Automatic annotation (TrEMBL), chain A:
Ranges annotated as biased composition (Low complexity): 34-43
A Pfam family hit: DUF5691
Protein name, per record: Uncharacterized protein
Stretch list, region Disordered: 24-43, 61-80
Organism, as annotated: Streptomyces bungoensis
Biased composition regions of type Pro residues, renumbered to the chain: 69-80
Origin: domain of life: Bacteria
Record-linked InterPro entries: DUF5691
UniProtKB/TrEMBL annotation, chain B:
Region described as Disordered: 119-156
Comp. bias regions, Basic and acidic residues: 142-154
Superkingdom per UniProt: Bacteria
Keywords: Metal-binding, Zinc, Zinc-finger
Name listed for the protein in its UniProt record: SWIM-type domain-containing protein
InterPro entries given in the database record: Znf_SWIM
Origin species: Streptomyces bungoensis
Entry's Gene Ontology molecular function annotations: zinc ion binding
Any coiled-coil regions, as ranges: none
The UniProt record lists the keyword Zinc-finger: yes
Pfam family, one: SWIM
Domain SWIM-type span(s) in chain numbering: 57-93
Amino acid sequence: MSGISPTQDTAAAASSWDDLVTTALLGTDRRPPAEAAPGREAPVALLDAAAVATVRRRAGLLPGRAAPRPEPAPGDPRPALPAAAARRLALLLADRSGGGGGRRGSSPDLTELLPQWLAAANAHGYAAPPQALPALLDAARGRTDLRPAALAFAGPRALWLARLNPDWRFALRAAPGGGATLPGAGDGEAVRRVWEEGLFAERVALLGALRARTPGRARELLEETWRKERAEDRLMFLDSLRTGLCAEDEPFLEQALGDRSRNVRATAAELLSALPGSALAGRMAARAAACVAIDHTGNSAGIVVEAPLECDPSMERDGVAARPPAGRGERSWWLGQLVEAAPLGMWPGRLGGRTPREIVALPVADGWQGELHAAWSRAAVRQRDAEWSRALLGAPSAPEAGGPGAVSLAERAKLLAALEPGERAAWVAGFIAAHGLSEAFQLLGVCAVPWAAPLGRAVVDALDIARDAGSYPWSFSGVMGLAERCLDPAQAAYLDGLLAIPDEREDAAPGSGGYWAEAFQRLVGTLRLRAAMAAELEPDTP
Amino acid sequence: MTEQGVRWTAEQVLALAPDAASRKAGSRLGTAGPWSEAGSGEGTVWGLCKGSGSRPYQTVVDLADAAGPAYKCSCPSRKFPCKHALGLLLLWADGEGAGGAVPAAAEPPDWAGQWLAGRRRRVEQRQEEGGGPAASGSADPEAARRRAERRAERVTAGATELERRLADLLRGGLAAAEQTGYGLWEETAARMVDAQAPGLAARARELGAIPASGPGWPARLLEECALLHLLDQGWLRRERLPDALAATVRSRLGLPASAEGPPVRDQWLVLAQYDTVDSKLTTRRIWLHGAGSGHTRLLLSYGAAGRAPELSLPVGLALEADLSVFPGAGQSRAALGAQHAPPAPTALRPPGVTTAEAAARYGEALCADPWLDSVPVTLDRVVPAPDGERGGWQLADADTDSALPLTPAARSRPGLWRLAALSGGAPVTVFGECGHRGFTPLTAWPQGPGAPVTLC
């Protein structure tokens, strides 16, 4: 009889029940009952008495004493989800276990839409329905990529709940300060206490939070204890200065160039080189200028490269790694690092007042073009220079853009990130129109969601062409999946013509027409679903 | 009867799914993509679903019947309802959300209309024949009486044998039972099945599991042995019992009975619906609360292994219907009679009591039926709280110092966390079963306005 506590009837009742249990356990043969009922066998009399006692005990049960109540969950001031959106969330979370394995058929993959839904709900600033929190926490537990958005949406009540269930401890770890709120920048005393006494993760979180709001304060905090920190910690702290990097950080970073740890030195140099006005950038510019020049000897202008002959200690102090990786020549390795760290703004002046586009178009002597352009690309990415990025990307339809050119696809994806979203989408659209989808996956990944109209049309046209070419749709499953998540739902109508099963052609892969129709149905279905999801999240207009 | 504005919620639709796999498959089909020519009207929903074949499946659902939805689909699935019916209902429940993928239409297409017309005709015929399946009695009362007598003799023989086995057990001691394990009780249970006393068989089988149920098992085993003995004695002396108690004994033994009580027409709110599954049978329990009468009634529905029971009433709906109770003191089981309006969403909530009143209510119910394990109770203003020891939880009154512990089974269900999240440390209203093992929460309502949250 665990559970409800018995009445404090009489001690006699309890002791007589214990007596009955003892007798029953040993058996009436070994332990005859104390008072035998007349006319009944001993075991039957025991059962009689036990039946009466059992019903009496159960009928007399009273509630127990209340344990300490949990602290009420902090309030969530965000408005409640519209009812339709709450139902959608329940469906998306119910489907969580799905996905993976098996042919996907023509119905949308709900699991893949959860991140989008969460982002949209967070953008609207809705509060999660309380009863959905356990499923949300479970989803975030299984998928680390979902955690930030899921926890932001789940809000303060989820942290309250996570404290009651060890399965959800990750939520407390993920939350800054282990679930406790970080002190505000104004609360100097509390900031100092966390910085001086906190765990490493708490200190990193504090530094990150401060850096986002008051970059100078974060740097000052770091400077105070810099010498006492361990090398690994210094590296992590230094990395958090990436956010809000500004000219005021230069003295501190310059000093870190003399750090004991090589990794810290390299990171400090990298950060300094991203500040075009810094002394380090100036030193690098001078070194790089000495290596690259206009060649006036020939009939037409060209670039000559004279790679550095040695890596002196001052270069090493500025973050140049002296030893190349296996298979690279020392001099080209040093050159790459110098050009990468030099401010791009110096080159027009150095190379005869030409624009970046003209500079990239110049021939480079002695096979240095690959090395030089790759270094410029890294510099453009690091310095987020749109004009140089544009120049280095070239025309999307250029033949070498699709092949193994000087600039790899990964580099190109990074260069694209420096462009405005519209320009980026237009470039990728041009690339797909010229080269098809097989190389486009990585480039599509950097485009803003939902895709701009020209890009969406280019992708759909390319898929259409791939279908007509007779290949199977799963050769394009990566792009298909992206399209389901990223195409603008407004473009669903554009796809209607593709839903029918085309007549099988002789050269097509057997049955591919049906699979394509199915894939396009799924695409359209997913787009409609996304449109419905977005509509449901619109606040009810009164 | 217009069906506008009474579309179900997605949770209510998913509660119809026979198993988790169907729920998943159904929710994937709950989007406009594969559907065409869908429509709804007069409590029916229909649509064509594009499957892997060339012909789309024709799916129709009839929601107008208060006995629960009826489904028809041209797919070969043996699940009931199939994923297409679930997907269609989800799409319909979605309402305007999916761009009105299931618009209200005046006339169903022919393929749906034929089935609906045939179905409605059969339902009407059944109602005209007067009161459903209970009336299908045997033609020969004399033969029926002889059959009942023969069965009573066998039950008496079974009860007598069980009494002897119990006496032997206690003569030798429960400690010995720990060694014999399941085997002895399985054999006893089989003997009781032969004796046509399924109630005794089930209880005997449960005895076998108690020695392995952890500390305190001798007391629990003695309790259950004593109650089984009480039931045997009740049967053997049934002539001397009051009629109501004798009927309770008969029903506890598993003898057939029919809902003879006068039909009570009321607005019945669906409080909870949950299934228990064993190897042969799925048992569905549906708790209803009468808004006018204040009664709480239990509907039982059965499905063969692997199939969902036919009756399905999603929580939060209310239906206008007649219920007739089964005979026996302290019994809440009832049968669904004539229905006057199909289930529809409602904001109705059951009135609640304190934890002390809930415990008292169980005590009173034991006077009528000493074999009761729990009674249905709605607790008002209780706070779910961990009670500190071994992962235990309790429901504590918001305004007094007393609390009911949750049953061990309820602690390990995911519903517990939905309850905790819904409460957030604030008082909630909870419906559940309150008994000697503790409280099993089944449905909860938030403090403010809001739909019920199922916990089972």
